[in-house]
Fold this sequence. Notes:
Layout: H1 2-21, H2 39-42, H3 50-57, H4 59-73, E1 101-104, E2 108-115, E3 132-141, E4 146-157, E5 163-175, H5 183-193, E6 200-213, E7 218-231, E8 259-271, E9 282-292, E10 304-318, E11 321-334, E12 342-344, E13 358-360, E14 362-372, E15 389-400, E16 431-439, E17 444-450, E18 459-463
Antiparallel strand pairs: 1-2, 2-3, 3-4, 4-5, 5-6, 6-7, 7-8, 8-9, 9-10, 10-11, 11-14, 12-13, 14-15, 15-16, 16-17, 17-18
Keywords: Signal
Signal peptide: 1-21
Organism: Rhodohalobacter barkolensis
Amino acid sequence: MKRLILFTITLFVLVPAVSFAQQSEEDPFKRDPIFNKSLEELFGMEQTSVDSARVESDERSDAERVARRLSYTGVDLGGGFEAGPYYSNELYSQYPNLPMIHFNRVNGLFLGIRKERMQWHRYSSFLDIEQIHPHGFIGYGTASKDWEYALGLEKLIGVEKRLMIGGEFHKATSTEDHDRIGLIENSITSFFASYDFQDYHQMEGFGLYAAYRTQRWIEASFSYNRDTFRSLERNTTWSLFGKASPYRINPAIDVGSDEIDLDRYSFALSFNPRNVLLANRFTFAATVGAELADNSESDENYRYNKYWSELKLFYNFEPGSVLRWRLKAGGITGDVPDFKQFYLGGVGTLRGSPYKYFRGDNMLLSNLEVQFGRSSSQPGVWMRDYNMHILLFLDSGWTKDTEFVDGPVLADGPEASATSGFSSFKFSDLHHDAGFGLGTGAFRAEIAWPLKEFDGKPAFWIRFNPTF
C-alpha cells in the first residue's frame, strides 16, 4: 500500500512537470560554444549542408546565448569554451579530461589542439561516411616537456542520432578533481596565483564507449577502459603573481605504487543532465554511476568497485531568489588506490575546511545555497543576467574508511558492500561549514567558516564557476 501511494505521488508530480518541459523546442544536449567553428571550417574543409548553413545564420544569436549563460554558469559548467566533462557524458572523465590549453604545476603551460569527444551534435562527416567523426588532441607541456595525445572515432547511429558508439587511444595527463573546481577555472588560479586545486596523473591506454539519449530526459552510457596510471611530479612553481607561494607537491597515485594497471567497466545513468526546467520555478537532476575494476585484469593489489550518485535541486521560491541543493553519496569496495578514493575539504566541497582533509571509502556531501538577486522578465530565467547576487550557504560532509578483512570471504560470512560504512552513520558525524558570498555565476567571492573542527578561521575563495 505504501509503495502504491508513493508511486501515485511520484506520477502526480512528474507528469505535469514533464509535460511543461516538453513545450520547449530547444535540444538541451546542443552546445553553443563561443569558439564554435570546427576544424573543418577553420581549414576550409566543411561540407555545405542544411545544418551548417543554419549554424552560420544563428552564429550571432548563439554567441549572445552563450554570453548570457556564462553570467550564471561560469567559465566551465555551461560548456561555453570547451565541453569537457561538464557538457558531455557522465563518463567523459574515464578518458583524459584536461582542456586543450591549460596551465598547472605538472605540465606548466600546455598548448594543444582538440576535436571533442562524446558530442551529440556534429555538422560534418569523415571520408564522406555519414556520422563518423574523428576526435582527439595533440599538445605539448612546456614544464613536463612531454607530448600528449588522444586519437579516436565515434559514430552517431539512427535517423534521430540517439545512439553513439566510439573508441579512443590516449596517453595524457588527467585528474579526478574535475568536480571540485572547473578545469579552465583552475588554470586561471594556477597561472595568476599558484593556486592549483587539482591533483594529476598520467593515463595511457584505450577505451570503448556507447551512449544513448532520449529526446530530453535520459542519458545512459557504458565505457570499457584499460589504462596504465602513473604518478607525475610537480615540474614548475611559476605563476604570474604568486611566486612567494610555491605549489603543493603533486601526490603519488598511491603510497604503495607509482604505476598501476586498471581494467575498468563503467556505467552511468542520468536524468535531466542539462537541468531543463520541469516547472516554471522548479527542476532537479539525478545521476548514478559505477566503476568496476575488481577483475583479474587489474593489478592484484588494486581491485575495487566504486559507486556514486548525485541529486541536484533548484527552486525559484520568490522573484530573484533561488534555493539550490546538491546531495552526493558514494561507496567503494575492495582495495582502491589513493587517487580513486573520496576526498572532502576545501574548494567545491566543504569550503571552510582544509583541502582534502577528509577521505574514505564512503562519502556523503550536501551543499545547500540560497541566492538573492534581481528577478528577470525573461521566461525560464530566474535571475537577471550580469547582476550581482548575495549567496548564503551551508556545506555538510562525512567520510569513513571501511575495514576489509584480508583473505577470502567465507560463504556464510558477511561480505562488505559499498554501503557497509553507512550502517554506523549518524547525523551528528557530519562536519559543517557555513558562509556567504557576493557575485555572479561567472565571478564571485566567498568566505566560509568551519563550525565543528579546526581553529574556526575563515577560508576565502575567488570563484569563476558556481559550486554546482
